[in-house]
């Protein structure tokens, strides 16, 4: 089985939710992880939490970076390269959602959604592509089933995730001949703090963050000749309507 020990990963928006779950799974496999967030203290405190009780030799570090700013992403990658000397895995996970009728959605909400969910993924790969060429690494975006299924009050979120799904597939075609694998994961309902949700026992039916982490590990261990480029994942037993 393919060993992942000593590889290095960048996870944007890794301080909570899906990003945090992926970070836990990577660390358990011996992968060093850099998580980013807009607030440095939060990122560093989360890295300490991830490192506490870790059984592997891997470690997590926390970096301040805003995916909406290209220079910020470049600095994060430079910090990773300076500390670890390599970058093998990039997870473009940072995301948010504003949900409102087009009549009520504000231009600022539209811009923040597109800048974070779509442009942020572009800035992330642009900042890291040279490092991934060196390592023949893996770039994974976290899209959504909302990137293939539209719904009322979802114009900004749908646009960002439809765009992210298509963007990732085009990047896959651009980079595969450099030996870089590219995939997008499209989850349905996940038990996270997304948009103010407080996960509790009522979310037990949802996808759990560790499930997405497990899926990422499966992708990383896939034989290099095979590329699952777009993966839809949904709760197996949602509540009956």
UniProtKB/TrEMBL annotation:
Gene3D superfamilies named among the record's database cross-references: NAD(P)-binding Rossmann-like Domain (3.40.50.720)
Pfam families: adh_short
Protein name: SDR family oxidoreductase
Annotated coiled-coil segments of the chain: none
Matching SUPFAM superfamilies: NAD(P)-binding Rossmann-fold domains
Family membership: Belongs to the short-chain dehydrogenases/reductases (SDR) family.
Species this protein is from: Geojedonia litorea
